[in-house]
Amino acid sequence: MSDAAPPTAAARVSAAEVLLLVSVFFIAACGLVYELAAGALASYLLGDSVLQFSTIIGVYLFAMGLGSWLSRFVERQLVGVFLQVELLVGVIGGLMPAALFAVHSLLPPGAATPFRVLLYALVLLVGTLVGLEIPLVMRILKRHFSARYGLKDLVSQVLTFDYLGALLVALAFPLVLVPHLGLVRTGVVFGLLNVAVAVWALWLFRADVRARGAMGAACALSAGLLLAALLGAERLTTWAEDRFYGEDIVFKQSSAYQRIVVTEGAGGTRLFLNGNLQFHSRDEYRYHEALVQPAMAAHGAPKRVLVLGGGDGMAVREVLKYASVEQVTLVELDPLMTTLFRDNAKLAALNGQALSSPKLRVINTDAFGWLEQQTETFDIIIIDFPDPSNFALGKLYTASFYEFVDQRLSAGGYAVVQSTSPLIARRSFWTVVATLESVGLTATPYHAHVPSFGEWGFILASRRPFRLPTQFPPGLRFMSAQTLPTLLDFPPDMARVPSEVNRLSNQVLVQTFEEEWGAVH
């Protein structure tokens, strides 16, 4: 017979306290994941990332406040209500990304209103339930451990665990969770965490729960539903994306920065970043020749070339057509992009194995910070960033950024910027022109028709007037000495309009861009 003494009541209480406070950590983590997942998914499927994140965060916080206010009406069966809330949050919040993906795929193209109604209804519901959690936990702690906690200690303990959980998830969501699990599985995994909190709360306070059997069955049913969703998450994501893209997906992966999808169809290969088309292999040569060749040919014999963005290697391919080039520096934020387009045989063939060239130096970092710290100069700077659809991208179109470009440009050098459509986003295009001119550069705008995109704009910038080149490398399919002059002519519907300079302090370009492109979606 063992001589060990049974655990004291104080020890049991201490263990219960710790477990309940740890549950606060997981509750906060789960709540923030649902908020971030809704914002990321809305940006991915609807675009306008600034608008989507702002409105979703606003609605979610309002709903949490509503839930906190509603908690005052819970007077009996605190533990029972808490368990019900946890299970509802786990199931609804955990399945929310999967449900939104599925509904978006079933709706006809352009039917954004029903999707938005469902999105914000779910955000409002989940936020309200999350808002109920912390007040209920505080009251449970106060009721069961009143001898240990004054109000000051109670609030500080709970909020410490709450904020710690939010911090860790805020870091893990873009760096670990989405890249390795994806949005659907991330939601389901954290839904299971909410159910786990309900299970251990049921065990800790089993004496306070009247219908323990029914509550245990509800926990088992919720866990089973979420486990089934976890097992089917990959199939659901594949089905939804196949419907969304309309072609066979040959590669898909989420990095810390974006969702990369490559499709293959009868017409060729397409690259999508966060659901936005970046190129189609059947006509990408028009875009990349227009982007690179005028500046390179006008210089004549460039030796040092800088490419900002363009991790697919297509712009580098065009640069390497000049024998005078000694070194190309490619600054691309996402290492997955440069690795994919270097190591995947089919994609590397599209860029002519440019990313394996001994002349190439690849730097995976933020272009703004990198350019700010540089001292070397370049004969040609090619700026091939995604369109300014959010503030993170918008800063790369500001006067501050173009001042760095001016400092890094050699005396006789040229910079060129891809600058969205001067037809669809006319004010946005001329805003980039005005911003380049504001730092003292001479801007030469031009445009080209790329069937996959429509009419697309580019801007040459230099300290000297642009002179039309008379010779281009052999083998080009679009650009020529006869073609380029026609690209410099802007018809009345694309002619210059008054535009404000885009600065870090105002980021007017992001708002203008969203207004103009939002009008056609």
Counting DSSP H or I runs of 4 or more residues, the number of helices is: 16
Describe the largest sheet. 7 strands, mixed
Secondary structure: helix percent: 55-70%
Rg (CA only): 28 Å
Strand content: 5-15%
Terminus-to-terminus distance: 77 Å
Total strand segments: 11
**What is the overall pLDDT average?**
88
**Strand order across the biggest sheet?**
7-6-5-8-9-11-10
Organism: Roseateles hydrophilus
Enzyme class: transferase
Protein name: Polyamine aminopropyltransferase
EC number: 2.5.1.16
Summarize the SSE layout with pairings:
Layout: H1 9-46, H2 49-70, H3 78-106, H4 112-144, H5 151-204, H6 212-245, E1 248-254, E2 259-265, E3 268-273, E4 276-280, H7 284-299, E5 304-309, H8 314-319, E6 327-331, H9 335-343, H10 345-350, E7 360-363, H11 367-373, E8 378-384, H12 391-394, H13 399-408, E9 409-418, H14 426-438, E10 442-450, E11 454-462, H15 484-487, H16 508-518
Parallel strand pairs: 5-6, 5-8, 6-7, 8-9
Antiparallel strand pairs: 1-2, 2-3, 3-4, 9-11, 10-11
Helix pairs in contact: 1-2, 1-3, 1-4, 1-5, 2-4, 3-4, 3-5, 3-6, 4-5, 5-6, 14-16
Describe the structure.
- The chain is elongated, with a radius of gyration of 28 Å.
- A hairpin with a 2-residue loop joins strand 3 (268-273) and strand 4 (276-280).
- It is α/β, with parallel strands linked by helices and 521 residues long.
- Helix 14 packs antiparallel against helix 16 (508-518).
- The chain starts with 8 loop residues before the first helix and ends with a helix.
- The strands form 2 sheets. A 7-stranded mixed sheet has the order 7-6-5-8-9-11-10, with helices on both faces. A 4-stranded antiparallel sheet has the order 1-2-3-4.
- It is 57% helix and 14% strand.
- It contains 16 helices and 11 strands.
- This is Polyamine aminopropyltransferase.
- Its EC number is 2.5.1.16.
- Keywords: Transferase.
- It is an enzyme of class 2 (transferase).
